[in-house]
């Protein structure tokens, strides 16, 4: 049906997505304002993402009562394309992923961070030490032992030095289901990254955590630790990774894998219908074990070699 909205100057050809937030998240309206600000900020800087649409009252969201509780409701422009997960992954696409997330963080340097400073979430890597309260969901003793080792390393090597890592507004969840790709040309078999969706994890955090999260999901997607080197190569084209950040990447990636695995199991025990979150379990444990067997130096050397070989190949 046709809704008359005098604010809409034109109709988005790709269509729209209506997003209804859960009642718990909807209690923090300022977070949705922050998300909207970020999406509009990035869109103006040629980073394709869903832009919120003003309603007839000139607002970018409304609070609606649904089934007895209040929910934030927004209309966002639809971003056409496929998700990263659903297409072939040549090395170039992982390199591009590194570049893309660094571009996002670079663009967000100039955004007003006041609305987002207080945002806290169990999924932020700063919150990783709290994972100890959820370890009880892990029944495998070997898995539990690895998680305790990662918690110990994180608490020793990262927590006391948090002040040394550069901070900024980050996207916070650069994974294979949030990255949008399109064919380079209609007759091409090659895909390129064209956009990003789902801003529910944006926060004020450390840039090294943004990189670690991106590397985690790209490594999981390829099922290959070496992929980390491709992501780093792309990222480094936009932002130089300082040595003290490189030194903690292995621990930070292991921490993200632990978060994903433990919170995935926890969510499944609370909500058995949520199978999506369990999808990474088998591959995730294998990757965590493989990564944790490496030393910092060995894995960084491997990634440096992968990056160098890729850049040499692609420059020919």
From TrEMBL:
Record-annotated Aminoglycoside phosphotransferase domain positions: 14-217
Known EC number: 2.7.1.81
Catalytic activity, reaction form: (5R)-5-hydroxy-L-lysine + GTP = (5R)-5-phosphooxy-L-lysine + GDP + H(+)
Cell location: Cytoplasm
A Pfam family the protein falls into: APH
Entry keywords, A to Z: Cytoplasm, Kinase, Transferase
One example GO MF annotation: hydroxylysine kinase activity
Gene3D superfamilies noted in UniProt: 3.90.1200.10
Primary location group: cytoplasm
Keyword Cytoplasm recorded: yes
Reported function: Catalyzes the GTP-dependent phosphorylation of 5-hydroxy-L-lysine.
Protein name: Hydroxylysine kinase
